[in-house]
Model the fold of this input.
Amino acid sequence: MSSERKVRVRFAPSPTGGLHLGGVRTALFNYLYARKHQGDFILRVEDTDQTRFVAGAEEYINECLAWCGLTPDESPAKGGSFGPYRQSERKPSYRQFAEQLIENGYAYYAFDTAAELEEQRKEQPNFRYSHENRLKLRNSLSLSPEETQQLLGAGTPHTIRIKVPTDEIVSFTDMIRGQVSFDTNLIDDKVLLKADGMPTYHLAVVVDDKAMEISHVFRGEEWLPSAPIHILLWEYLGWNDQMPQWAHLPLILKPDGNGKLSKRDGDRLGFPVYAMNWKDAQSDAVTKGFREMGFLPEAFVNMLGVLGWNDGTEQELFSLEELTQKFSVERISKAGAKFDFEKAKWFNHEWIKKTSNEALLPQIKDVLVAHQIQHIDDKYVAQVLYAVKERLTFVSDFWEHASFFFVTPESYDLDAVKPKWSAEKTTFFENINAAFETVESWKATDLEPFFKGAIQDSRMKMGELMMPFRIMLVGGKFGPDVFQIVELLGKEEVIARVRKALIAFTA
Ligand code: GLU
Done:
């Protein structure tokens, strides 16, 4: 393989449902490698298994990549000069390669019916179609050429299987794992072409990677056991000099590190595993996704970028742009990466802080609309956002932290005020309310000395009046700096809230 070869990588999901975060990480690492090397990032939809086809899954994949900012250079939707990019549309191109393999002695026709194979499996639970028993089964290796021709001539349904060699070692260099070897005696004769004429994943992946001039394959570690089949096919088809380089990405593990993270773990532990909500067409059941849970795409991508990769420093926050610059295969770890939902939330919190108010505003307004806030003043919302931003883990938390900026409290934390309430305090607030009327500058920096000066004059303690004041405005003992709240609410509203709260406090 020439070292000048253009980098062309592919993300090759099967459209079978929601996209697991591990799938998006595979897409991301492919994308990063392509961008880093001025290469092409291709989306190929692997839909040859018609029994697993799910309507809407391809659109979901497109939407998901768009949300994450991982725009493919070539895809079913966008096209490109190596299409079609949907495997089902390439169906006619596969049979010739399967036949070529038969001609060269690397594959064979298998006529065993599903029922016959089922019978075998019943008899031997560990049944594998392999070098050990292939001559005892119904195929073109065990039958005479005449019998085979007769069956083919009669249109007998058949599959084509690879003839895996006996007593060989298949070795290759994985960019992440180094030298990897497999004993062919442990590999079964996988089906390459199904009875319906569709290729299986194994044949299609090799034919398409060749046709699309894929230079590097980044895919999950779960595909490592399939690699020897693919390597044999590259060799048997005579394409060894064009074989891509392999990189099997570390698994994403359950939070406790015990095994691969599955959708069920998410359901069990209460966090999303899919990138976006996925609705099952049959049951209508919705599986929650990161997007709908309130994750910013920047945070989601950042979190995925450091699942199994780091730049060798303590840095954890990376934009897609920075990941592109810093990404290197050498720093991808071999060991599985534990998924930590608390850490995922931390990324979101950090990204909310990093994102400009302007960029967050549309989502914040959606939150307000969802809570029936009708009159929305962009400038006011932006100021409120500035005041509470540090506290948000999700954009939707905005309501919890800022609702009092938009609606007058209906109830108060009376347990915190009433036991220590006094006539003196009532008088203080009546007086301060009257004084507020005459205050000219309604700025936090002026209001604070003004209010604190009044407390000093009253000879009461700071906390005794500051805390009730906050509860009057907010309803409870939370929120940002009280004078920031006073400034933002405005004179009229503050006076009205103090008046209303006094009635509740003295009732
Ligand atoms: N279609 C496979 C999947 O669903 C692709 C595996 C590969 O990248 O070779 O993940």
Notes: The first helix runs from residue 21 to 36. DSSP finds 21 helices and 13 strands in the chain. The domain at 358-506 is CATH 1.10.10.350 (Arc Repressor Mutant, subunit A). The mean pLDDT is 96.
